[in-house]
Amino acid sequence: MKKFLLVLAAAGMLTTTSAFAAVKSVVLVHGAFVDGSGWRPVADILERDGYSVYVVQEPLTSLEADVAATQLVLDRAGPSVLVGHSWGGMVLSEAGNHPSVRSLVYVAAFEPVAGESAGALQAMAPPAAQSVVPVGGGFLQVKPELFHQDVAQDLPERAVHFSAISQVPIAGASFGAAAKSPAWLTKPSYAVVATEDREINPELERFMSRRARSETIELKASHAVYISHAREVAALIEKAAQSSE
């Protein structure tokens, strides 16, 4: 039997290709106004469960730059589940075409069709919050004094304070950048709808996930659902990984 297996291996019949490799890597993409550190509660769960976690730190200077930063991480991550929160949904829709990506998870995120921008989607169903303001140089952020009520109202205010004052502004022009070839058209997708979201209208989240035929869960949570409901979000990511093997 051992000799037979060696013959098969020599013939290339027992190789393990990336198409059939187990998905044990997760790449996490943050949204606007924050950095990747917010993913820590989810990352801790995934690592405990045996996954290799990569957190992209996007520059938030343009959709193209954010996609490029994500692709660089995917180059070394191997077969992966690609996860995006908020603005990160625009990023993973494009970066998700990378050959390492096996499935996509949208967490309270934009899920565009070709030709749609985040700004156009917001105009379809405006969010409850109106606290995003210019901060100079063409960049935007959330008013720090309104960050808790509009972004993370289900977290302790003191815990949110540092995120409010350490925001990473996003280039306003990014919201006009249109998706070209969304990866969910060809790869399995999953979605989290945050029913108390004030930054992206929950009805818009439902509409986008239905349109993409994403397997969807709903959580009674703020826009910061990936922090306040890290366990449920991690469980959906692991389901995406297991279903992709």
Brief descriptors of the model:
single chain; 245 residues; alpha/beta; six-stranded parallel β-sheet; three-stranded antiparallel β-sheet; 10 helices; 18% strand; disordered N terminus
Short account of what is shown:
37% of the residues lie in helices and 18% in strands. It has 245 residues and is α/β, with parallel strands linked by helices.
Structural class: alpha/beta
Share of β-strand residues: 15-25%
Radius of gyration: 19 Å
**N- and C-termini, Cα separation:** 27 Å
List the helices and strands in order.
HEHEHEHEHEEHHEEHEHH
Overview of the molecule:
There is one protein chain. The protein is of the alpha/beta class and 245 residues long. It has helices spanning 2-10, 40-48, 63-77, 88-95, 118-124, 147-151, 157-165, 202-211, 225-228, 230-243; strands spanning 25-29, 52-56, 80-85, 101-107, 132-136, 139-142, 170-171, 189-194, 215-219. It has ten helices and nine strands. The radius of gyration is 19 Å and the shape is globular. The protein starts with a helix and ends with a helix.
Write the layout of secondary structure elements.
Elements lengths: L1 H9 L14 E5 L10 H9 L3 E5 L6 H15 L2 E6 L2 H8 L5 E7 L10 H7 L7 E5 L2 E4 L4 H5 L5 H9 L4 E2 L17 E6 L7 H10 L3 E5 L5 H4 L1 H14 L2
Helix pairs in contact: 2-10, 3-4
